[in-house]
Amino acid sequence: MDNVLEKTGMKKSFGKSLLYTLPMFLITFMFMTGGKPNFSDPASALAVLTVFLLVNVLYFFMHYTGKTDRYRAVLFIIFALSLSYTLIHNMLEVRKSMSFSQADILECKIPFCHLVIPMMILPAVFTKSIIFPGSIIGGFANISSMVVLWLIATIVLGRGFCSWGCFYGGWDDGFSRIRKKPVIKKISELWRWMPFAVLIMVALTSALALMPTYCSWICPFKAVTEFEQVTSVESATKAGIFLSLFGGLVIALPVMTRKRTQCSFLCPMGAVNTLANKITPFTVKIDKNSCNECFKCVEVCPLYALTPADIKAGKVSLFCSKCGKCVDACPKKAINYGIRGIPAGTMKNFSRNLFLFVSFLFMAIFSAGSIISTFHGLLKLIF
Amino acid sequence: MTDSFILGLSSGSACLATCGMVLFPYLMAGSAGVKKIVIDLSLFMFTRFLIYFVMATFAWYFGQALFSNAVVRNIVPGILYIVFAILLVWYSIDKNREKDCPVKIVKTVNNQRLVPILLGIVNSFGFCPALFIILTKSATQGTLLQSYLAFLAFFIGSSLWFLPLPLAGKMKKKEVLQNIGILATGLAGIIFMIKGITNLIGGIING
After folding, report:
1. pTM
2. Per residue in A140-156, is it b (16+ CB within 10 Å) or e — as a string?
3. Using a CB-CB distance cutoff of 8 angstroms, which residues of chain A are in contact with residue B182?
4. Which residue, of A144, A157, A311, B113, is most buried by count of CB atoms within 10 Å of its CB?
5. Neighbours of A35 (CB within 10 A)
6. Which of residues 230-269 of A touch B (CB under 8 A)?
7. Which ipTM did the prediction report?
């Protein structure tokens, strides 16, 4: 395997890997410290240093080993865990509870997340109002900054956002890695379309009811972020749904299938990002001349984005989140990151370097704040 | 009205998945002009509308007579919602659903002018779980007007799928849309199952 990586140029020398890491090193340094490291609070300085080193070491290893997914996953999973920690910590500090009351809704104090975006569009067009009770500018997790960040990431990365930017994806990505072999191997391809059905349902119900129905009734991540206070049969039913979906789609099924089942079968944002894959400049390409149709890539793909038919046709489906698992698994190095317009099998190294730089930089910058805050909180707890 | 519209919208797609192969040849009428397709489609829709109007009236009066007690009004529909919702979910995952299309009876009719009306009648009376759910909802509404509105929302939701029928033959991703529609039907079933459970628990607590 190592010989193949060296031959195809994915694995780099120590010095060359350092050189490739240098721009990431400088940008993340500037972003995390503002150019002036602050040593007045040792816990804070240590948290920044740890996250800075973590990010750059992971990026270095991506170049040095030629492997993508395992290093991406480390940061991606830490991001998901730290964001939940930050959110919960923030809510416990402000509200003394993980649940929010009707007063919090009326005062627009609910933290915003990108999953609401598809539900906001129709009501915003027809009623010129935002149906989410969050802060538009300023405050914790405000609407405008999240929309802008998501928009940029989706245009550049397409569904790559689901593996490089989504702060929930790390949960089922993490659980999907627990078992070495799947218990459930065969799931019908039909289910890949479920996020589109969910998207249609939540977009319409939100437009008709003028409320974010996905957040109110479905979102499994309410179990690890914030949820409505249980005061009635309806709110108890909602809490039951959140917990069941989290337990089923984020924990149990990913463990049993080794796939990201919440992202594959439920997330409406995944459907929007899948459509965005049509316009993104980055893609994953199959070199038909090198492929021996062993279908190892189909087996490892966490989002059911690859089928034997796709491989035979030499095309990766729109469901691809560019996580790099298939690229790492291919024994013939027939699957590679590519750039639209450049034929498969050519400029593989350039395409991979460019994609890794853009996607990893986005993840590093996007996740840094919450990971630093989590490390800082943990350090304060320990000492 | 929202849930009735959503139910109509999602079950309309499953209805097409079930009966599409029978409906298409009549309503799309490959060689016929747009004018004929529009007239046939309008007749088909109008027939459905009239039948739903009658159904809403009957369902509401039937509901008034049957669910007079406030607790029964929650518990019985709650159970019915759950049963029909399970059937609706089953309907969406059943691979043999095309065999069940009632509209194929119309294949035996020779009078082409009557076909759109007959299709409308058979399609409306093709008792699918979604129709049972909307009948249950209609029966438990406070006023007759609300019952009509529930059926109207259901009618509009389900009719949206028939409007692009003249273009359906040219659609490349027909199968994908059908798959999404079938899954949406299952989701609608789950929504009504939750509604049923909430009704039932509410009814038991209040009782």
Report:
1. 0.80
2. ebbbeebbebbeebbeb
3. 190
4. A157
5. 8
6. 233-234, 237, 241
7. 0.77
